[in-house]
## 1
Amino acid sequence: MEVLETRNNQDTLKVKLDDRELFIHSSYNPEREAQQILKKELTEDFNSDSHVVFFGLGLGYHVSQFTKQYQQNSYSIIEPSLEIFNVTSDLIQLEDVFNKNVVHLFVGEMYSITQMVNQIYKESTTKIEIVILPTYKQLFSKLLSEFLSESKNKIRQHRSMLATNYRFQFNWIENSIKNHKRVINTPNILDDDFKRIFKDKPVMIVSAGPSLSDDIESLRYIKENCLGYIFSVGSAINTLVEYNILPDAVFSFDPGEKNHLVFEKMINNNMDSIPLVFGSSVGYQLLDNYRGPKYHFITSQDYTSRLLLGDQVNVDELILDSPSIAVMTFQIVNKLGMSPVIFAGQNLGYLYNRRYAKGVEYNFIDSELTEQEVSRAEDVKDVYGNNIKTTMSFNMMRKSLELFAEHFKGEYYNTTKGGADIKGIPFKTIEKIIKEHLRKSIDKKTWPSNLASYDLSKQEEKKKELLLSYESYIEGKSRLEYTFDKIKNETGKKKLEKLFTKIDDELTRFEKNDFFKQFIVQVIRVEHDLLIQKINKTAKKEDTLDKKKDIVQMFKHYLDILQKASNKLVEVAKKEAII
């Protein structure tokens, strides 16, 4: 690496790479080149809310140009070479490159690509733009390719998470309130009595993937000879009913309004002897419709049970909300001590151009894939090492299973022929599983049905505390609205600054209120997170009237959503006698 003077008396860097010599910046006019880089790299959608990631600092010409031209925007810098950074530190005024808007600086190999991407995209709701120093495309091609790939995946995951939160944020709370009466009147599947029943017993977690049809007769053999428990998850119940195989239990947690339709065939055929194990935030319609025995587990989305049952809800026994019921059931059977845990029908990819196994047909979603769905699919390795098509949601399920397999470290197998390979859950055909691991019958004991899982002596006291918290929330909401109205009508800069501080303090107090914290904010979590991010960004602005404009706009939208959410939630809470 060599520092050279350009024709217009600026510095540039020349780097020798193998037999080539590359200039990090123009050897003629680095500053003009910096302007051209920004013009080329920043998209048409770039605006004052965009966060810019600079891949390559070099001598900082393009970053310095950016900080002068876009004084409102936040940015981060990745400089893969410690040597280049050291030279830069000696040559330039760092104040020209790093101002109050810089969020992250990554130098050398202190962080992995995954760590950098996670830091940059953490809880970000603003648009992120990537500006690449041209020479770095050659110097660090492999690193750059990995960064762009990880960034793409992170953006897709973030959008999926936002979409899930936005879609279900009211359902989770509404269901947990409406289901509370059933939670306190049904046994918790993770009670010690159940751990004694299930410990060290083999279990098949049966999903509705297209390969399930290939394992049906083997599952029938397992069932008829009591070789292990068969737990049906999600839509698999329809295939099992189609082939007249009754599982030992069905598991469900989907908070959606159509979830009960998954079990329509079972309910309509009066198959009410099968235990239903439900997540406490499951769509309440299923519990209204199913007449058979019910058992529950408390999910991480159920704030009602955690508030009203207090320390009776063991945090270690909470089942973390996951991309699929198979993943949540995997958590449960591990906590019950069941072994080995065997998956069937867990394709996590497409087979025979089908979404589900035979016997799973709905009028609200096709079991057959469209050409467009197949064309949009991603490639992933199957259990034989071949490429199969999958989706982002299937990939998230697979990665979740891999994380829990690594966490629990039990004995696991995957019998899904042609399914996606799941790290930590090796493939073995169901025929081999029966021959090698399910050689003797097990004693399937009767499940306790009238087990009292909770002491309800303090339930009414908890509800009174919640009512007081609700009344305090109403008062805090009124103060927030009053201060907002004063900000709207105030023009004096000094008074506005005091009002900004006041509304910020009131929002902080608001966030400490139990009713708001455990219920309201969970219903508007996407909008609330967005508000906090916008407040933090607006606080950096120096012009008071500009701040006022932003605050009025953001709080008007937020208070409207807050009012609508409060009305809906309070109506449900009062109807269910929670407050």
Note: The two ends are 70 Å apart (CA to CA).
## 2
Amino acid sequence: MVDINKPWVVDSRLSERFTVYTRGNAGEVAGMVASPLQQTVISGWRSETAWRQALIDFGAFDDCEFSPDSLDIIGVAHGYIYINLSIQRVFGVRMPGASAELMDRTYLGSSTGAPEYVEQPGDSAPQYAERIGASIGRVMGTTSRPDLEADAQRALELRRARPDYSAMSDHELVAYSNRVNDEYTADFLRKHMLMMYESSIVTGFLDETLGRFDDSTLGVRLMGGWGGVASAAPAIELWRIGRLAAASELVTKEFEVGVDGVLDRLRSRGEVEARSFVEQFDGFIFEYGSRSSQEWDIFPPDWESHPEMVATLVNQFRKLPQDSSPEATGKKVSQGREALLEELRVRLADDAEGWGQLQAAVAALSVWMPARELSKTNFIKALHETRLPLRELGKRFADRGVLESFDDLALLRLDEVSALIDDPSVVSVIAERKEWIAELERREPPFVVVAGDVPSPTTWEQRTGPSALPVAGPGETLSGLGACPGSATGVARVIMDPSEAEELEPGEILVAPETDPGWTPLFTTCAGVVVNVGSPLSHAAIVSRELGIPAVLAVEQATKRIKSGTLLTVDGTTGTVTVH
């Protein structure tokens, strides 16, 4: 029996200066234990370096404030990735118009358990004000981000130039992965990390501007419906492919035979309808194949490697009524935003300064909300090209009988992978690590931990065990963060993984643990969304607003407190979920 109380293979030393860490936002993209390969290729020093540089570029920190030999911003405790809340709080203290409490709301939502912020020497250092002020001026004066469009083109060209992995040696595969990481992924990630802080300027300015009104729902009602949001694009394109399938009697019959094998059956047919569908489907995979759930994993179930997942989604989309079009529902959000803006214009008729500030905030939102998601999409596309050579290497070792499965390669650090090429005995560590990771993943990590006081994993709640909170009963209202305005009533469907998409019926309420881009298309097939974790600028929030799906995030233990089949009303304006 493995001892899960000892540090995991890639655990980090938590910061002694910035001591509070949270799973908020981290749990959305890294829900399970970080594998050794993931941590040494993606989320270790490579991500830490990019994030540090983003904070420095923004003007909020100096490099000397960070530890030179241990991770500060991205901590790993017993295998689970945490974001340093203390550093985000200091950012809030140094940022004009922000606060430590604002950062708590951003990263914690309505969750509790974090120790109260206590200012430390150096937290409110005034020398950063001028630098941050320059960043504020730059952000508010930005009307477009052509550099991100250029990065999108670079990512596309990288995909088109993908080499033939079968012609590369084992060492060449590792070298190519490293080169893509160094030349593309690292730069795209730095921009995305900087984008998080730049977009927070805009939402902070909006909150400040709306402070003159006694209505906490205004912000969420003004933040969506911009169109052109990269992470919502897959849902829109899947809708189009679903319509194509629904319009073809031939394609429809093949899906009705069963989703299993439907792509092979359609490829084997010579009819124009079949060829046209397959061409559109393959084009979708080429463009969006990098997307998946658990996008920080080294070997996630991405759509290119698992096209059957996309076929399942198409099967769901083809059954939807025409008025479920994500473009149509998104247009309603846009129209609602414009109507609200006109209402506020009238209310500010005697306050020219207030109206001018509100116009500036909304104009900035129209730039930075789509830009934030485009920066993330560019990063994921480059990351996909970083991972695939390692997947090929894992398959080779499995074919040679060195590994039981290609994804066992994830249980080795990158340096061990390189060593394995010349010394197969390195695999001897895998058996224990496989058992170790399985034991850790049976448990739910604490939402907040403090350096020097991380509870033993043996005390963590079992994922499959009962909730620490009671199951919600009739008449009870659960609170969270409203992400997309509007309300919807429907039957709850608890979905723990996007691969279970076929269980979600049109008109039901999706209740999920977290929602990264692999979940996005499910939003279109449901009436509303409830999520365990999330924040106003999380992926789930931004996409739900673009698709016009009422959503409530950060509902503590929602997947345990709400049972499938329960009738719910989701109010994405007030951030409440009512059980009927």
Note: The two ends are 45 Å apart (CA to CA).
## 3
Amino acid sequence: MQVAVCGDQIGWRTDVTRLLVFSTDAGFHFAGDGKLGGIVLPNDGKCHLENNMYTMSHYYDYPSIAHLVQKLSDNNIQTIFAVTEEFQPVYKELKNLIPKSAVGTLSANSSNVINLIIDAYNSLSSEVILENSKLPEGLTIAYTSLCKNGIVSEGENGRKCSNISIGDEVMFTIDVTATGCPKMGKPETIKIKPLGFNEEVEITLNFICECDCSSGGIADSDNCTLGNGTLECGACKCNPGRVGRNCECSSNEVATEDMDRTCRRDNSTDLCSNNGECVCGACECKKRDNADERYSGPFCECDNFNCDRSNSLLCGGNGLCICRECICKPNWKGSACDCSLDHSTCMASNKQICNGRGTCECGACKCTDPKFQGLTCETCPTCPGVCIEHKDCVQCRTFGTGEKAERCQEDCSEFSLVKVKDRGELPQPNDAAYPVMHCKERDANDCWFYYTYAVNNNTKEVHVVDKLECPTGPDIIPIVLGVVVGIVLIGLALLLIWKLLMVIHDRREFAKFEKEKLNAKWDTVSVWGFNKPLNNSGSKKLIW
């Protein structure tokens, strides 16, 4: 709101396209949310910026969406919402409420913001939407657009044209209707402009509420039949004895007050159903530009071109449009004669209607058995035998092998083939809206291949993994290495066991020796020695 109304502080230039980029990773507040903080005063839609900061957040509530739309329109601002993917649905709903706005997905690091703005601007600049100022009481306005490629739209769609490029020309027709005169009959002004642009058209309406016409009128006017009246103030004033809008009737034929009454089906309907004119108490229906289209009926209440259509054909091309209702040809029924009563199109190859597994409705089979599909309920994609039936064709079209490899193109073109990288990419039963049969088959080389078979809208679809799973022979080197390593490990294990046993045996023997040593009894003999010469030299030896 502040960016929209604070033109001087923001620095909006005049006579330029104004883009407002709103970037966020969260939702938004609107009128009423301020009550949670005790703020009840409605937003005043005025500028309250000081030093680039909004100073009245504690005083005024958030603006309403309608209030914001008005301010954006008044200041010719087009909004681009650059938001994260999580909040895309919220801002797409907001976009529907704010004309001339766009929504783009902002990446996590905002690196795509420039491209996002460019794409959004291209989208905004390719659409023209007209809006008008508030209409005075008693006025209505209707738009009709002639857009690119001759597309004509009315009503709300008549306000806009899309997919416009530079150099394209579009045209808008605007009908202003006054249902009454304004107070005092003073002039009224309305403005019409395209959203997001400064250019506008200003229309001043002068109301003529009372006629100030010539009292004598224009005699013998062509508008008053055969000189039976004078044209005064745009209407015929009939001579005595003549009545009617153009004085075309004699009062002896029909009374004036009864003339319009006889041209209405009842008091609540329009004159001649608004499809003709009441002439002398009888309806004369309008002529159409297309000579084959015409109004009919005593009150022009019927026509032959407003019946239901099928395949862009009136009554499906199988009936006549009479008084806005299709009268169907034999073997056809329905509001648009689009339901055939012919059951030949439902006949299966076994001469049963819909193969006995469905009902024939409007010339087409409606299968009652969910396993069966196809035009005549003869296709069963999940029945046993489907995989074997299509094995050879899948093999030859995918790998160029199999029994039908030589005549693959001639015999195997009945289904569409889609190749995938692995089994995880194959359609799963819970992902598809139609039954899917998973198949696993083996070729002549004992290689397996995987595929799925399904029927989607009478079209056979096969998804196949483009790689075979073939058995592989034994790898000699790992086997030899394994045997050698095994022998070595066994030898080491035996050696360790032998060593362990020897250690245990030695410890037992040592323990036994120690025990016997402790149990041994020794005799101790004390010998007292004496000195005795050992030789002639006088040496002595002490002996115990």
Note: The chain is about 20% helix and 25% strand.
## 4
Amino acid sequence: MKNKLKHIMAIVLLILILTVTACSGKNNTNKKVSEPFEYAGFSSPEYKDYEKKSEYVEMTDGTKLAADIYIPADGPDKQKFPVIFQYTPYGRSFIMPDIKWYEKPFIKNAVGTWGPIVDRANSFGTVYGSTKEIVNLFLSHGYAYVVVDMRGSGASYGTKVDFSPKLAEDGYELVDWIEEQTWSDGNVGMLGGSYLGYSQIITAGQAPKALKAIFPEVVPMDGFTGEIRPGGIFLWAYSQLDMQKYLEHNYHLPDEGYYPNAPVVDEDGDGELVDEIPLDLNGNGTFIDDYNYPADANDPPQYEDGKEREHLYYLGVHEHLENTPYSELGPNTAFIDDDWEYTDGNKKHTVTAYNVGPASALAAVMESGIPIYNHGGWMDPFIRGTTELYSTLKDTNPSKMVIDAGYHEGTSPYWEYFGEDEEKVLSKYGIEMLRFFDRYLKGIQNGIDTEPPIYIYNMNGDGWRSENEWPLARQQLKTYYFSKDGELDTGSASPGKDLYQVDFKHDARWGESYQTSRWQMMSPDEMPVRTEMDKKSLTYTTLPLTQDTEVTGHPIVDFWASSTASNGDFFIYLEDVDPNGEAVLVTEGLLRAGFNELHDNNTMILGGEKGIDVKPELPWHGYENKQYNKDVFANGKIVQLTVDLMPTSWVFKEGHSIRVSIAGADWPTFEILPELSPTNNPNDPNNIVPVITIHRDKEHPSNVVLPIIPR
């Protein structure tokens, strides 16, 4: 009897425990939490499905733009929703022709869908703000989602001049169009990275009434030094990429990862879109060069099913042949004030890099007061721009900034190096976007606007932490002088000079699969270890540190140089050297010596005529034609060169050393100075190979100033 009673009591106790646990779990579910990457209790996933449709949106000039529209379904009975809008030149959705039944399992495993349509809601790789997890997160929380191909791209009509003002005008019209749709509640937010970050800023600069918040990621403030000529040096490798051509001409090259953009209209009404793509008669991957239609009415596109069509897809893509790509603009833009001439319809336009970068829209963006959440990565080439956008706009626009350890695509070998789960880190950005748009599109008071505005990843140290300002108020600027025997010394400059013969074969790429660097905008597959590269460079290294040393902010290198050549390029690296001598890249900067003079950084924005105070106060070299001295080193002149390195947040551990490494080339990522190598070939026997002298004495105290954060 006692045993039976004990058994009954045990069962009752178990039921009580389970009941309490269930109640506790229920209470935890309802608990409100809103902090970086954590969000619960303020909104909930009420919709289980979505409806998708595609259509053309006609601009006032008659150009039809392709749009995918996703509407929440299977949830509360609502007719109108706030809208997340992406405006892209990289394709709103893709289609995979000729999928065999036995290939489908492999495609499902690779891209997450059985095909043939690969879109924002079923699978979209790691494109910022475009993974199916993020899109479905918004749809489930009651947001409509709209993605539109820019003119001259995807399945849209028209021609595109990269970064032209017309793209901003289209952005304005698209937001107005979204506002008027029956499924829109009149509140629109934009998100996305790189070109999609740029498209947000220029659209916000048009001040459409319905645009309530933007979330730009990995975007520069100044387009000239961001993508064309960082430090005034032509980014040669980027101009060689065929990505834009393959996307705009709708190539089908599956082995290289390219698929045609999805057609908008099923012209033959058979429920399939694959057969709306004309046949590629010559088998080169694109149909766009197989027909002379519409110039020759007797040479219309041909289709697999042999049916007649209006050729809606073909006619749109055919207009892309008149695009003016970056690969044509970049090499012909030597200075920030060089004229760009292009034709829009029958009207000719002349602009400069001042008129086409994100900075050109900042005055209007500041006037609009639109909330902005800036996202950058410490290894992204545009990270200076991320900090400039935040710091310059924070007093006029509700502003936030988050910076992680990512490269341009978000992925990074640093995540594993720091013991982080990369996939887990990147997946949390959907939560952060939801918090932001819940606040500004739905009006939910979740506190995102009252918490510290900055959230950064302190590399090799604290990990994630909040900050209240940028640069950090508690930073202590510490000078490390270039010294004898390659030392970096906190004492004073030791009198002397160091000679370095430039090695044009210095190549700052790394990794087996990508062979890339931050400037090529792809994440490498292994850590950037510069130990061997330093052998082709001039280095200055501290003694082993006696305590952990945090550097968070903008390192500035200030040095004096002369050369046997009249001009030269300088690539500077800040490195962490471990006790075994392995040197890991922390950050970097570069400058063409002919741009040695410093100018007011406010002139970044339309030459300073807008009167905007650009922050932080960082070195700016003007980059105008009249500010360039191609004979800067002539007659043995000693020249002061000031280079800001990309901002960073890194802890150098006790026992490690800090190193500054200087090289005179980074080929083939950057061109070799044409005066030294007209063929841009490091092996050309006719190259002029200069010898650089770094001067270090009382009059020439060459140094690096590091923003040290007390720990």
Note: Residues 35 and 549 are 28 Å apart (CA to CA).
